[in-house]
Amino acid sequence: MGWLWIITELLVIAVTFAALGLGFAIIFESFRRRHNNAHVESRNAIFEDPNSLKQVPCPNISDPAEKYISLIIPAFNEELRLPGALDETMK
Fold first, then answer.
1. What superkingdom does the record give (predicted)?
2. Is residue 35 included in any domain, yes or no?
């Protein structure tokens, strides 16, 4: 009967160490993923252009600025008023 008690104790100790090891691995991996900034500092960041499906490099914060305007006018039958409004907007 003594050998059964020893086997049970060894099994409990092994399971305890395995659970502690798994818990430590989970905590370590979550900490590592939370503080990993490699994706932010990547210099070769690219995205896919939805129109041409080509890979285009992402602009960096230090790249020169580009100026562009997208104008959407929700109007109906205002063809005569639009040229004057656009001239006024661009001044």
1. Eukaryota
2. yes
**Dmax over Cα atoms in the chain, in whole Å?**
102
Q: How far is CA 47 from the centre of its chain?
A: 12
Could you tell me the pTM of the whole model? 0.41
In angstroms, the CA 25 to CA 43 distance is 30
CB 28 within 8 A of CB 35: no
Over residues 38-47, the pLDDT tens digits come to 766 666 778 8
Cα–Cα distance measured from residue 30 to residue 32, given in angstroms and rounded to the nearest whole number: 5
CB 56 within 8 A of CB 49: yes
| Structural domain boundaries, residue 51 | 2-64
17 pLDDT higher than 90: yes
C-alpha distances in Å from residue 55, one per residue of 30, 39, 43: 31, 17, 15
